[in-house]
Automatic annotation (TrEMBL):
<protein>
    <submittedName>
        <fullName>ABC transporter</fullName>
    </submittedName>
</protein>
<dbReference type="GO" id="GO:0005886">
    <property type="term" value="C:plasma membrane"/>
</dbReference>
<feature type="transmembrane region" description="Helical">
    <location>
        <begin position="262"/>
        <end position="280"/>
    </location>
</feature>
<keyword id="KW-0813">Transport</keyword>
<dbReference type="Pfam" id="PF01061">
    <property type="entry name" value="ABC2_membrane"/>
</dbReference>
<feature type="transmembrane region" description="Helical">
    <location>
        <begin position="189"/>
        <end position="209"/>
    </location>
</feature>
<keyword id="KW-0175">Coiled coil</keyword>
<feature type="coiled-coil region">
    <location>
        <begin position="127"/>
        <end position="154"/>
    </location>
</feature>
<dbReference type="Pfam" id="PF19055">
    <property type="entry name" value="ABC2_membrane_7"/>
</dbReference>
<keyword id="KW-0812">Transmembrane</keyword>
<dbReference type="InterPro" id="IPR043926">
    <property type="entry name" value="ABCG_dom"/>
</dbReference>
<keyword id="KW-1133">Transmembrane helix</keyword>
<feature type="transmembrane region" description="Helical">
    <location>
        <begin position="230"/>
        <end position="256"/>
    </location>
</feature>
<keyword id="KW-0472">Membrane</keyword>
<dbReference type="InterPro" id="IPR050352">
    <property type="entry name" value="ABCG_transporters"/>
</dbReference>
<dbReference type="GO" id="GO:0140359">
    <property type="term" value="F:ABC-type transporter activity"/>
</dbReference>
<feature type="domain" description="ABC transporter family G">
    <location>
        <begin position="44"/>
        <end position="147"/>
    </location>
</feature>
Length: 342
């Protein structure tokens, strides 16, 4: 009753209660049956008033059924097989005495014979009808299940109609999630973050060699240190300093730009950006030793970075085939794609 179940099994729910409370309980259960619920309960010695509330009753004698049917038809049934009221009395008491084998002329032998007679009458008159009803219900249930399965296999529209309508519905549902000004602005923010970080890192490292070439040549000519030890030491000193400011920049910009507020997405995006900056620094270090003029070095690096940006498809969609392969060697292309995906 607490979970609004459709079937209730109750084992003598009225035991030990007074008649008033018993009447209320049975009345409540009767009201529950009006709401498409089934109540099956065992009851001991019900009163005549309670007996009138029962829709169907099952009488047992030593565990064997002797009657199953409507409560209003119980007395006529027993009268038809030769057991009727010999004196005015409560019909419920009469039925209880009868299933216990007590008839008008009670003897020990008569008790056994009464129970056997009731059981034989049930087998001859009621069991066959009950079996037919159960068979009919079983067939009806199978037919309903077959119709339900048939309905599930039938479609009111063709496959092509479903295929043409569903994409339209999906597009209408998702267009407000994808094609919005905020999403476009956020994508542009990620693009400029990636581009700015690449320019910042590469221009910081391209001038290291031109600026320190004279000092490096002088100290190495004196045999003070190896070139490899100088390079590794310089990288270890510069690398943390060059990554702290971009990390702070990305953290503040992500919060102000309203990007995805998930720690995992932010850390992945930051990791991709820092890797891109390392690649840009490596590019600057690779070009720096071949540059003797600062203006020429900045021009060369700017031209190379712009080629990467243009070939990646960020500005131009229709790229000529002979330069379309450049995007696959552009680290900006992969950085932007990975940031969008994260």
């Amino acid at each position: 009753m607490l979970i609004n179940s459709s079937l209730l099994f109750l084992d003598e729910p009225t035991s030990g209660l007074n008649s008033t409370i018993v009447g209320r309980i049975v009345s409540t259960l009767a009201d529950l049956t009006k709401g498409d619920r089934i109540v099956v309960m065992a009851i001991h010695q019900p009163s005549c008033r309670l007996f009138s509330m029962f829709h169907m009753i099952l009488l047992l004698s030593d565990g064997n059924p002797v009657y199953y049917g409507k409560g209003s038809e119980a007395m006529p049934y027993f009268a038809s097989i030769g057991y009727s009221l010999a004196m005015p009395m409560n019909p419920v008491d009469f039925l209880l005495d009868l299933v216990n084998g007590m008839s008008v002329n009670q003897t020990i032998e008569g008790t056994t014979s009464t129970k056997e007679a009731l059981l034989d009458a049930y087998n001859n008159h009621l069991r066959g009808k009950l079996a037919e009803e159960l068979a009919g219900l079983s067939q009806q249930l199978e037919q309903q299940q077959h119709e339900a399965e048939k309905m599930t296999n039938q479609w009111c529209t063709t496959w092509w109609q479903q295929f043409t309508v569903l994409p339209q519905r999906g597009l209408k549902e998702r267009r407000h999630e994808i094609f919005t000004g905020i999403k476009v602005a956020q994508a542009g923010l990620l693009f400029f973050i990636a581009g700015f970080s690449a320019y910042y890192s590469s221009f910081q490292t391209i001038f290291i060699c031109p600026q320190e070439r004279i000092m490096l040549s002088k100290e190495r000519s004196s045999g003070m240190y190896r070139l490899s030890s100088y390079f590794i030491a310089s990288t270890m000193v510069d690398l943390p300093m060059k990554l702290i400011l971009p990390t702070a920049f990305v953290t503040i910009t992500s919060w102000l730009g309203g990007l995805k507020p998930v720690a995992t997405s932010f850390l992945i995006c930051l990791a991709f950006l820092l890797l891109s900056m390392l690649v840009a620094q490596s590019l600057g270090l690779a070009i720096g030793p071949f540059v003797t003029n600062v203006n020429f070095g900045s021009t060369l690096l700017t031209m190379l970075m712009e080629i990467y940006q243009l070939a990646s498809g960020s500005y131009v969609q229709n790229i000529p085939p002979f330069v379309s392969w450049v995007k696959y060697v552009s680290f900006n292309y992969y950085t932007f794609k990975l940031q969008i995906a994260s």
